[in-house]
Design brief:
alpha/beta; 11-stranded mixed sheet; 3-stranded antiparallel sheet; 14 strands
């Protein structure tokens, strides 16, 4: 009920004259002065908390808990036992006329509304794009847009995501759930994986599309992944493309601990520009790393020797550059990596997984192969206009967490955002994140959507994670509540999603038995699906349906 201040003054004045309490007079004066000074709107307010239980002991405990929490907020609780039915009835919408006036008090709109600002049910987004999640309390399905709608409303400035969850928290399961729905809504998805977490979903898509999609690349010595950084479909090398090639070359040349000087970066950039100009003017030059290496060895080194201002080895050691990169040149042990005659075709494939577990421990190959895949994705991404592109990098992000790779990461995130894309980094290693300032500056700061799973494993160290991610105390409390009071009659895991540091909530990832068997990373269950598919002639979808029915019927 909204009250006119002048009428309110007359009403309170009557009370003022009838009371002998100096304390009441003081509070009334302060209230009226504040109302007049700031032009505040007065309302009559009533707040109550209804609690019930069939067990008298439990009800007593609930009352004590509620009263204790209210007391910590500076509120004086009063247990109402006489007219509970009246309050219950009159609190229903439409029955407010029966509300007893003596149960309300005068205040202003702001304090009256403060108890209700955080109170709402989970609501589905009106956006046509999104993913299906579940209300953690009721199990009700929710349509949630964590990409487009937040940007349109100004909550986020990019669609990039950072996913953090320890082993066993459901991190890969949730990511499977996310990318499957993105794929089904027309997105192009590329994943760089190091643990076969997406093999089941990829096989399902491969079978459904009769081999046209759901492509699973596995790195092996017999069939290594390779590409050609000096080839573009349109022959255009813009500034971003040149910077990308330069960063790749610096990564091949320098170790993690070596600092790249301004002179080295400048000379390599100049050499690259000269080579690209020569390649543009001479169609006989084959665009590949071999040609660039020969240019550096035969022409650029000679050009450096003729300069009036000498370039000393301590400033730019071209001999060391050529010696280090010799292994990627014709006849070297890695000559296949950068001289591919057939570029990886990602343009017409909407779901591609690169499994590079075989090289994750190889300090030389791991970063190179990771960049190769990302660069191939970015090259193709430029040609897909108006289509959502998603690049998901699991633990492979570690290959890019050195100081020399910081600029490449920034370039990648910038380019992905520009071309209607999303870069998603998924990790489980908290120590790697905390110890790497590169991760914070390049990955976390460029990801407006942060997704965290069960963090109980790191509860004693969560303050470090909170500081790194810039989480509020409220967000911390939400995250540490994950999976703490799950319904035993439902099979699900909870996940916290934060958007732009202003909106956050905990949702449940609850799926059908068929989806569970498709996403599972449990080895025994994956083998069961693969064996059943083999019995059915490779039909993964039929195998999943059969196993799901058997489980529902109680067949083991």
């Amino acid at each position: 009920m909204v009250c006119n201040v002048s009428n309110l003054f007359d009403y309170i004045a009557d009370i003022y004259h009838d009371t002998n309490s100096l304390n009441n007079q003081e509070w009334i004066d302060r209230y009226l002065n504040e109302a007049h000074s700031y032009g505040l709107t007065s309302v009559r307010c009533h707040c109550n908390i209804m609690a019930w239980s069939d067990d008298a002991e439990e009800l007593r405990r609930i009352k004590n808990d509620v009263g204790g929490q209210l007391a910590t907020m500076g509120c004086m609780p009063r247990h109402n036992t006489i007219d509970c039915p009246t309050l219950f009835w009159s609190a229903m919408p439409g029955n407010e006329a029966d509300f007893p006036a003596e149960e309300s008090f005068y205040t202003f709109i702001e304090p009256a509304a403060c108890f209700f600002t955080a109170e709402t049910n989970y609501r589905s987004s009106l956006s046509p794009f999104g993913i299906k999640m579940v209300d953690r309390l009721t199990g009700k399905p929710i349509h949630l847009d964590i990409s487009d709608e937040p940007m349109k409303r100004g909550i986020t400035t990019n669609r990039n995501k950072f996913i953090l969850g320890p082993s066993g928290s459901g991190k890969s399961f949730f990511t499977n759930h996310l990318v499957r729905q993105y794929y089904e809504q027309g997105s192009h998805v590329l994943l760089i994986d190091t643990g076969n977490s997406y093999e089941g979903l990829c096989n399902l898509i491969h079978n459904r599309t009769h081999g046209e999609d759901g492509i699973y690349y596995t790195y092996s010595e017999e069939k290594p992944i390779s590409f050609n950084p000096f080839f573009t479909d349109d022959g255009v090398f813009d500034v971003e493309k040149k910077d990308s090639i330069k960063t790749l070359l610096l990564t091949l040349w320098k170790s993690e601990d070596d600092r790249v000087t301004k002179t080295e970066s400048g000379e390599l950039g100049s050499a690259l520009s000269m080579f690209l100009d020569k390649m543009r003017n001479d169609p006989d030059i084959v665009p590949c790393f071999n040609s660039f290496y020969e240019f550096m060895r035969d022409e650029y080194r000679a050009e450096m020797a003729q300069r009036p201002i000498p370039i000393y080895k301590q400033d730019f050691d071209i001999d060391n550059f050529l010696t280090t990169l010799r292994q990627y040149y014709h006849g070297g042990r890695f000559d296949f990596l950068l001289n591919s005659k057939e570029n990886i075709d990602l343009l017409n494939k909407r779901f591609v997984v690169f499994e590079i577990d075989a090289v994750k421990d190889n300090k030389e190959l791991f970063p190179v192969v990771t960049i190769i895949i990302m660069e191939a994705f970015i090259n193709k991404m430029r040609r897909l206009k108006g289509i959502r592109k998603v690049l998901i990098c699991e633990e492979a992000w570690k290959a890019l967490s050195t100081a020399n790779m910081a600029e490449y990461i920034k370039y990648m995130f910038k380019t992905v955002r520009k071309y209607f894309g999303e870069a998603v980094v998924v990790t489980q290693e908290v120590d790697d994140i905390i110890s790497s300032p590169i991760v914070k500056e390049t990955i976390i700061n460029n990801s407006d959507c942060k997704i965290l799973l069960d963090q109980r494993k790191y509860m004693n160290r969560f303050d470090q994670i909170q500081e790194l991610l810039g989480l509020t105390d409220k967000e911390k409390a939400q995250i540490l509540s994950i999976n703490m009071a799950n319904n035993p009659n439902r099979l699900y895991k909870e996940v916290w999603i934060g958007l732009g540091g202003t909106q956050s909530a905990v949702y449940a990832t609850e799926v059908s038995m068929e989806e569970y068997l498709c996403y599972t990373t449990e080895e025994t269950e994956k083998v069961q699906v693969l064996n059943k598919a083999a019995q059915l002639g490779g039909d993964t979808e039929a195998a999943i349906k059969m196993l799901a029915n058997e489980r529902r019927e109680g067949v083991t």
